[in-house]
Design brief:
The chain has helices spanning 39-43, 49-58, and strands at 3-11, 18-25, 30-38. By secondary structure, it is of the alpha+beta class. It has one domain.
Length: 59
């Protein structure tokens, strides 16, 4: 494969960090992975960057 993509997003239904994938597209030579972060846990903080970065580093 020529490309590996990491898609990071948040969703209210997600309670803990989830990794999804791989989704392999052989025609386009791409492998996609998804990193889903818990929206509610992040938005409860006044500065969302801190919990977002902590989740990104720890998981």
């Amino acid at each position: 494969m020529d490309f590996i993509n990491l898609i990071t997003c948040t969703k209210k239904a997600i309670l803990e960090v989830e990794v999804k994938g791989p989704d392999i597209n052989r025609k386009e030579k791409i492998i996609d992975w998804g990193l889903w972060l818990p929206y509610e846990k992040i938005v409860k903080y006044p500065d969302q960057r801190k919990p977002y970065i902590i989740y990104k580093i720890l998981f």
